[in-house]
Amino acid sequence: MASAYGRKKGISLVKVLSRQDLRNALKKKQIEPVYVLFGAETYLRNLAAETIADLALKDSQLREFNETLVNLQKNGLKNALSAAEQLPMMGSKRVVTISDVVVSSVRGRDTISEDDEDLLSRYLKDPAKSSVVIFVVNELDKRRKISKLLLNNAASVDFKPLRENELLYWAKNKVRELEADSDERSLRYLVGLAGNNVRKLTNEIEKLATAAMPENFISYELVGSLVPDSGYLDNFELTNQLLAKNKIGALRVLKKVLDDGAEPLMLLGLLSYNFRRLFIAKEMMMKGLGEGELNRVVRLPFNQKKEFLASARRTKGETFARILKRIAKTDQEIKTSIATPRLQIEILVCELAGV
Fold first, then answer.
1. 202 with 106, same domain?
2. Following DSSP, what letter does each residue of 50-82 receive, concatenated?
3. Closest CA to 252 of 261, 242, 243
4. Could you read off the pLDDT of 137-166 as tens digits, one per residue?
5. 10 and 135: one domain?
6. Burial bucket for residue 344 (CB in 10 Å: 0-12, 13-18, 19+)
């Protein structure tokens, strides 16, 4: 792999790499001086940072002296780049991993900002040849000047959420790694329950592999008995917090769901789905229809049937109608506004908690 970044007549040329691009380069032992790892799939992002560090420090006899971890919530960028300028001890490379990198649409949350531009620009222009600097990014507003400086002058890798076939491939390999076995039907069921969160999927596979002993076969029934439908539960919990007008609780759940990798538009669709079903259930209740008919039409959630019906019963139909209109408006705003989708859905949640 040629360098992921370069310059021509003073203009940065950037290619944002995929996970596969990075994997191919590391297999060839090609290591860049600076990495920017970002994206929704945080488990694989962190694993990539560890893999880069392991490869760079493979010949280091004193790894503890050649590896520096800097959390930007606790230490400034200057300390991190100063560490990168130090020569390695009894090894060819030093690794500096800079975590909690935030360049936000909300300036007060930044851990790197335009105030750091001169310092960062000087280092990126001439990075230490004996160091590997890894920026592990939690949030990156690509419209910001400092974001462009990072992306245009480093090997930038976007860790997008895995698609279903990629999650299935990951699950198969993880089951094999744990010396267990399963069938495709069971693994597809597991992926559907765990959602597109690799950390959650991995944890569930490890739990299932232990429960499957001594036969070491993860069956469809075992998956159904041990793995909760976490995507649905988290999103219905958000719905409940909104109906309870608990703004703090709703924002806490929202942060968890988004940090776990949910796309804002996908989450908006799930909220719309939940509130539409609640609205339908409310209308059916007002017509005097029983729980059996409700279950047939609305498909009540098995684990939260009572909670679902209670939410529909205690909320006015007009409230559901207003919420659905506001969700539709946010959907349009996300598709047309310059504000980030995450910010738009945070505004929506704050407003709905007061409806």
1. no
2. HHHHHHHTTT-S-HHHHEEEEETTTS-HHHHHH
3. 242
4. 999 998 899 999 999 999 999 998 888 889
5. yes
6. buried
Do 314 and 179 share a structural domain? no
Inter-CA distances, 32 with 2, 56, 63, 125, 300, Å: 10, 10, 19, 14, 52
> Which residues face 95 on adjacent strands?
67, 132
**Count of beta carbons in the 10 Å neighbourhood of residue 120:** 20
Two structure tokens written together for 32: 């860049």
Model pTM? 0.64
Structurally, the chain folds into a number of domains equal to: 3
Residues 85 and 106 in one domain: yes
At residue 212, the 3 state secondary structure works out as coil
Domain-terminating residue out of 158, 188, 206: 158
Q: What is the pLDDT of residues 297-310, one digit of tens each?
A: 766 554 566 777 88
Instruction: Say whether both 107 and 140 belong to one domain.
Output: yes
End-to-end CA gap in the chain: 53
Q: What CATH number is associated with residue 340?
A: 1.20.272.10
Residue span of the structural domain in which 34 resides: 5-158
Which residues have a Cβ under 8 Å from the Cβ of 2 and sit 6 or more positions away?
none
Q: Distance between CA 262 and CA 271 in Å, rounded? A: 12
User: CA–CA separation, 222 vs 187, rounded Å?
Assistant: 11
DSSP for residue 24: H
**Helix (H), strand (E) at residue 232:** helix 230-243
Give dist(CA 57, CA 97) in Å, integer: 13
